[in-house]
Automatic annotation (TrEMBL):
InterPro entries: DUF4178. This is DUF4178 domain-containing protein. It comes from Chitinibacter bivalviorum. Residues 56-196, 296-423 form the DUF4178 domain. It comes from the Bacteria.
């Protein structure tokens, strides 16, 4: 360990690793460069936004049988949000990176320069890149800027440092092509390979507690978890540190809270609004694992909602709710015509897929719907990326029983998720609501209409029973025709569903 005084403010700066090139002074944010015989201040870097991440400088764990310690971090901003890259030092003197975005984690190790890579501009989601006998699929392509740094880092960065990165996956394997330093003298991007991980699998220690996250994360200067919309003055409630992009329910303004003050990015005054059963701020208590037997559960809060509609069929729409728990992270609930679904974003890709089917963990999911396009027509609440009215995505859906796989693709990324059916009664129990239905539910509406049809049929039979005994066959025939017409649309609908 090497100790020195910050050339700018005199505070002590630690270099825990012998291969660290710079360290960021935690008091004045000066970037301290260490050379063979001196240290010098090479400028300041922005302070990181403390977010929902439980990781911090000093967090330790084990990856692939090797002990590591987190010694630095850079925070990167792209057009729709932020993510963290944690710099880790292994006990054997080598280093790696632990990517941290939206509650998902990717551990990667440097393998030098990539062999025969395509140009950055030529890559797009779902293209293939071969490495080590594996076909990796491009899942994310971003150009981002470094907006904050902390601790030690292996190379010189500062405000304005541009990162051009392409992420690829093969099942749970992860690969990154980093084009940030590509130049005439260095024509090939850096290559990092690793895998998607969970913190518990890393045996992580010295994590931030829930209380520490809530106390320090993401607060704007001088504000609590409620802030007035800079556009209309309506109160915006959000979870500090969890989400930096807020959409005002009252005026539709997109508000960025990732800096020292809230900024209005854009305003959507003509956003359509459909009825949603749940609202931002609603809480649910959901039992999981052993807690199902004890009657206790995890508290989740709806922090954002998005209304989506098919572009080809605007009458077909659904609502997506983003839920968050301090000690569980994120998940989605979807309210659609055919019911409710709990959705988890997958941290690995299916083994194979086509337009007709997909295979995940050896299970085959067959095509449910042909490829279709959808767009955001309304949004409200807080998100960990920027949501805009008009955002478009292409979707494919596959089903196996009550489970579904969804593949969503836009120009920057492709995301896979898995969903399972949840009953109206279960949603009502979670949220303490007694009248939970689904938006324009064909099933619910069908049941109600069928019940009404039988009710009127019985009334017709009772009223016309005397005609039967009186032998008035003309009116009996007209009664039968009326009963048939009541049920005919429902029978046709049932045949179509089959």
């Amino acid at each position: 360990m090497f100790r020195t005084a910050c050339p700018s403010c005199g505070a002590e700066v630690l270099f825990r690793s012998t291969i660290s090139a710079i360290a960021v002074c935690e008091y004045c944010q000066s970037t301290v460069l260490r050379s063979a015989d001196e240290v010098k201040d090479i400028g300041k870097i922005g302070k990181v936004l403390e977010d929902y991440s439980p990781i911090q400088i000093g967090t330790s764990g084990v990856f692939a049988g090797r002990a590591f310690t987190v010694i630095g971090r850079i925070q990167l901003r792209y057009d729709a949000g932020l993510w963290n890259e944690w710099y880790v030092s292994f006990d054997d003197g080598k280093y790696g990176w632990l990517g941290d975005t939206c509650g998902q984690y990717m551990f990667t190790l440097s393998l030098g320069d990539a062999a025969n890579p395509p140009a950055f501009d030529d890559l797009s989601p779902e293209m293939r890149y071969e490495h080590g006998g594996r076909a990796f699929v491009v899942t994310d392509k971003r150009t981002a800027q470094c907006v904050g740094g902390q601790g030690e880092l292996p190379f010189v960065v500062g405000n304005g440092y541009v990162a051009k990165v392409v992420d690829c996956r093969n099942a749970d394997r992860f690969l990154t092509l980093d084009y940030s330093d590509v130049s005439e003298s260095k024509p090939h991007p850096a290559l990092y390979v690793g895998e998607a991980v969970e913190l518990k699998a890393l045996q992580a220690h010295t994590l931030r507690s829930d209380e520490e996250i809530q106390r320090s994360a993401g607060r704007l200067k001088g504000t609590a978890n409620v802030l007035d919309c800079p556009s209309c003055g309506n109160q915006l409630q959000y979870q500090a540190g969890v989400a930096t992009q807020i959409v005002c329910k009252a005026c539709g303004s997109e508000v960025d809270c990732s800096g020292d003050r809230a900024l209005v990015l854009t305003k959507h005054t003509e956003a359509e609004r459909y009825h949603a059963t749940l609202d931002v701020g609603d809480s649910a208590t959901i039992a999981e694992g052993d807690k199902e037997r004890t009657g206790h559960g995890v508290k989740w809060t709806v922090i954002g909602l998005i209304e989506m509609a098919e572009i080809e069929d605007p009458d077909s729409h659904w609502t997506e709710y983003l839920l968050y728990s301090w000690n569980r992270g994120f998940f989605w609930l979807v309210e659609a015509k055919d019911g409710w679904y709990r959705v988890e974003v997958l941290n690995q890709l299916p083994e194979s897929w086509s337009d007709g089917h997909a295979v995940l963990a050896g299970q085959r999911y067959n095509k449910l719907y042909d490829s279709y396009h959808a767009k955001v027509i309304y949004a409200a609440g807080a998100f960990n990326w920027r949501v805009s009215v008009g955002d478009r995505v292409q979707l494919w859906e596959y089903a196996q029983g009550d489970s579904r796989l969804s593949r969503e693709k836009n120009t920057a990324e492709v995301v896979w998720s898995k969903s399972s059916k949840v009953s109206n009664a279960q949603i009502g129990q979670w949220f303490g609501k007694l009248d939970v239905q689904t938006i324009q539910s064909d099933t619910v509406d069908g049941e109600l209409t069928r019940s009404t049809a039988w009710r009127y049929t019985l009334i017709l039979l009772v009223l016309n029973l005397p005609l039967w005994f009186a032998g008035d066959w003309d009116n009996v025939i007209w009664t039968a025709i009326a009963a048939y017409l009541l049920h005919w649309p429902l029978n046709k609908s049932a045949e179509a569903d089959e």
